[in-house]
Design a protein that fits this description.
The structure holds two protein chains of two kinds. By secondary structure, chain A is an alpha+beta fold. Chain A is built from eleven helices and 19 strands. In chain A, strands 1, 2, 7, 8, 9 and 11 form a six-stranded mixed sheet that branches. In chain A, strands 13-19-18-15-16 form a five-stranded mixed sheet. Chain A has a three-stranded antiparallel sheet with strand order 4-5-6. Classes of the chains: A alpha+beta, B mainly alpha.
């Protein structure tokens, strides 16, 4: 050993340094092994088998608004535990929250009650610790509400839990207005063999505001809850050969008329048809005759090897004497499917809630303002109901004043330029623009394929991933200013030395 | 003209820092970045502080590399999912969304722009000029800070000498233990320099305090404490009792006025002789007016229409940032110092 060392050292010329180098090298690797070991331990613990719930697990959600309306619904947890904030988002309401750099989520506004974050502060109705705010509760084992000690993003909701949110005065951090008690069984009743959604009963404290034309909407669980009905036939699985087409005989019908919806799906494992009240399994080639009293969206949910796809079609119902709907109003399956598709592809096992895809439908439907109009009772699926009322009485829709939206005037651009530019609030301005451009929408509606929601580019605030033309112009102004500054920089560089 | 009056630069700094602090919109911040770059390019960049611009850019880029992943990994909110981490991972598990990354980008850019604005200011107004700009009542503190700031590059040079000497002797850097032979000579060198500088300054009469009449110093101190307490009370009531915002704001304004009065009174006691006064020129007025316009426009936007400056990409808001050309133009106006300096420069021959 020593001979070998001496031989090596005679080559390098230094005797002791080679030994030192050997020891250094081992210490080098040992020092760097610790973080790798810790990372390996972390990975191993995360790969431990997680208990997978058989039917995905559900949780109940109760929301009590400022005027005493109570909404309750059953939320599908999708096989994993969700945070309280995510459960609230799956209710389908418009939730404004402060996500604060990952240090916790504070819920500021749910569907019109609360503070417009970030234009206002999140807890804008607080005096010190005396607050009117969204208090967060969990239903305890003795069926009483317990004030949550953790925030919405810190609490993991397990299957069978019931969450409660209520707006009202209280002391921030310790008390608030307690919502009425509903147990999990009351909210998420066990399914019948025909896959009836969990909650179909109206809530207890609904204040019915009568609308002249619309029938009161039943309370619907907006998320896809239960699919215990097996599909009656499954197509032979052709890997990668998935084709879906969904069409309607007429997309705009007069009230009292009927139309036929037809779909043709190949290469799928399971297909479910959701007609606004219930979801059931169907075969690949079918047609249905529907006679909706008001505008209705129908969804086809196709499960295949690669994940899940959603196709949606909306039937607009008009009064016989009204002027015909602008053709931008009905949403085709191709337009609205872009966004849920993206979600489905990115998250294969998760079930995107019909609320989100219905919201996408309403996003692509120009005349529908996203906020729930005053004319409806509150505990409804906001987007579908709004769409229905809007289709029936375009001129009478008055969005809630606290959201700052101006009343719709079909065919006229009423929104001033400032409200169009506000990215914070949905405005009907760009949607009114859409009414004035029916031809464009028509060509888009005939097109095929996985089209992004660029078709809804006329409503940038309701379709989040798209840009409208006014915004593009402004981006052009930005590019111009940036180019101007670069030119100025070259000018300055040339004039100065060093 | 090679540079502006220090107070004109201060006005520019106020406007630019205000802009960088008020918004997180990446488009506005990019424009502000370019404007700051133009202003920097107009300076005489041969001074050593000007060369530290590169270090500030690197520091800002490092900040961006921290804030974007931090926000993306911690906030799991958004519709556009980039990829997913297993839910069981403690903090970072869940969907990693584009919205969170964009919000992190906005915050990181804001920090970067603030850094560069201050770097430009320190390149334009070097230590000697800054020292002369300190208010009279802060004279002693200003001198101390000025000396401390000049000590840092001296320490860097000294440490480099020590490392070179050690390497010649065969001493190799082998981890934290080998820092000790570097640290001790550095400390003794620094102390030696400090003591010799203090002796020479004392010989020149620095630090000699003017004897105040009895009681005046206690009155100044009591007044300062009272004014600071008023400021704290005003800030507390402004934040905690939104219904009494006017009272809170009034208290804060009153305390600010009181502090200014006390500081002026204290400053009148300090006798400073000035050599080579800075002359206020027309360019300085233009720069101050321009910065004033930009600052006023930003404050007005913040008060009247705050949504224009806000960038919040999470649902239900949109991912695309808003851009208003007038605000963008106001921010681009902050490039004025560079343009004015360049245009006042006669074209030098290439050999210079």
């Amino acid at each position: 050993m020593r001979e070998r060392q001496r031989g090596r050292s005679s080559r390098t010329g230094t005797s002791s340094l080679s030994v030192v180098r050997g020891r250094d090298r081992s210490r080098f690797w040992v020092a760097r092994a610790w973080p790798v070991l810790m990372l390996a331990v972390l990975l191993l613990t995360s790969l431990a088998p997680q208990p997978v719930l058989a039917d995905g697990g559900r949780a109940g959600l109760v929301i009590q608004f400022a005027d005493g309306d109570v909404w309750k619904g059953c939320v599908d947890l999708g096989g994993d535990s969700l945070t309280g904030a995510e459960v609230l988002q799956r209710s389908g309401f418009r939730v404004l929250a402060d996500y604060g750099f990952g240090l916790g989520t504070a819920v500021c506004k749910i569907d019109g009650d609360g503070c417009d974050f970030p234009a206002q502060e999140c807890f804008c109705q607080c005096q010190g610790v005396e607050c009117r705010y969204w208090a967060y509760y969990h239903l305890g084992p003795d069926n009483t509400w317990q004030y949550s000690q953790m925030g919405a993003s810190g609490y993991q909701v397990r299957a069978g839990a019931v969450e409660g949110w209520s707006w009202g005065p209280g002391v921030y951090g310790s008390s608030g207005v307690v919502p009425p008690v509903f147990t999990f069984e009351q909210i998420c009743a066990s399914p019948t063999p025909t896959a009836v959604p969990a909650t179909n009963t109206p809530t207890a404290t609904v204040v019915p505001t009568a609308t002249p034309t619309a029938t009161p909407w039943p309370t619907v669980t907006p998320t896809t809850v239960l699919l215990t009905a097996t599909p009656t036939a499954t197509n032979a699985l052709q890997a990668g050969d998935l084709r879906i087409s969904l069409e309607a005989q007429a997309k705009t019908i007069a009230r009292g008329e009927c139309t036929t919806l037809r779909w043709d799906v190949t290469g799928a494992e399971a297909i479910y048809w959701y007609d606004g009240t219930e979801e059931r399994g169907v075969t690949g080639q079918e047609e249905r005759q529907v006679c909706p009293p008001t505008s209705q969206a129908y969804t086809l949910r196709v499960q295949h090897a690669g994940g899940e796809e959603l196709r949606q079609i909306s039937i607009a119902v008009v009064q016989a004497t009204n002027t015909p709907q602008p053709s931008g109003a009905p949403v085709t399956s191709e337009e609205s499917a872009g966004r849920p598709d993206k979600q489905a592809v990115a998250v294969p096992p998760a079930t995107p809630s019909p609320a989100s895809m219905v919201a996408a439908a309403s996003a692509a439907t120009p005349p529908t303002p996203l906020p729930t109009p005053d004319t409806l009772p509150r505990p409804t699926v906001p987007a579908v109901a709004a769409e229905g009322v809007a289709a029936n009485s375009l001129a009478t829709v008055t969005p809630r004043p606290d959201l700052g939206a101006t009343p719709l005037d079909p065919g006229a651009e009423t929104a001033p330029s400032t409200s169009v530019e506000e990215a914070a609030l949905p405005t009907p301005g760009p949607q009114a623009l859409a009414l004035a451009r029916p031809a464009e929408d028509q060509t888009r509606s005939e097109s095929d394929g996985q089209r992004q929601v660029q078709a809804a580019s006329t409503a940038p605030n309701t379709a989040r991933g798209s840009v409208d033309e006014a915004l593009l112009l402004r981006y052009g102004a930005f590019a111009f200013l940036a180019a101007l500054l670069c030119l100025a920089a070259t000018f300055v560089l040339r004039r100065r030395v060093a | 003209m090679s540079t502006f009056h220090p107070f004109a630069w201060l006005a520019w700094l106020a406007a630019a820092a205000l802009a960088a602090l008020l918004t997180r919109n990446p488009l506005y911040l990019l424009l502000l970045l370019l404007a700051t770059g133009v202003a920097y390019l107009g300076l005489d960049r041969r001074s050593p502080t000007a060369r530290s611009w590169g270090a500030f850019v690197r520091l800002g880029a490092l900040l961006l590399l921290i804030t974007i992943p931090w926000n993306a990994l911690n906030v799991h909110v958004g519709d556009i999912v980039l990829f997913r981490l297993p839910q069981s991972w403690p903090l970072i598990g869940g969907p990693i969304t584009l919205e969170a990354a964009l919000f992190g980008l906005g915050s990181g850019l804001s920090l970067l722009v603030i850094l560069l604005v201050f770097a430009t200011f320190s390149s334009a107004v070097d230590q000697a000029r800054l020292l002369r700009m300190t208010p009279a009542f802060l004279q002693a503190a200003g001198v101390t800070v000025g000396i401390a700031v000049t000590f840092v590059p001296q320490m860097v040079l000294a440490s480099r000498d020590i490392r070179e000497a050690q390497r010649i002797r065969g001493h190799r850097f082998r981890g934290l233990r080998s820092l000790l032979p570097l640290f001790m000579p550095l400390l003794t060198t620094g102390l030696e320099r400090a003591i010799s500088l203090a002796e020479s300054m004392e010989a020149r009469g620095f630090g000699a305090q003017q004897a105040l009449p009895a009681g005046r110093s206690t009155r100044y101190q009591a007044g300062t404490v009272l004014a600071l307490l008023l400021l704290a009370a005003g800030a507390f009531s402004y934040a905690y009792f939104p219904a009494y915002r006017l009272i809170g704001g009034g208290l804060m304004a009153a305390s600010a006025v009181g502090l200014i009065v006390i500081f002026r009174a204290q400053g009148r006691g300090v006798a400073r002789t000035r050599y080579r006064r800075w002359h206020w020129e027309r360019w300085d007025t233009i720069l101050v007016a321009c910065s004033g316009i930009v600052a006023l426009a930003l404050l007005a936007t913040r008060i009247i229409w705050p949504e224009a400056l806000i960038y919040y990409p999470y649902p239900p808001y949109g991912v695309w940032p808003e851009f208003h050309p007038l605000l963008g133009l106001a921010l681009a106006l902050l490039a004025l110092p560079g343009l004015l300096l360049a245009s006042s420069q006669r074209r030098r021959p290439q050999a210079a």
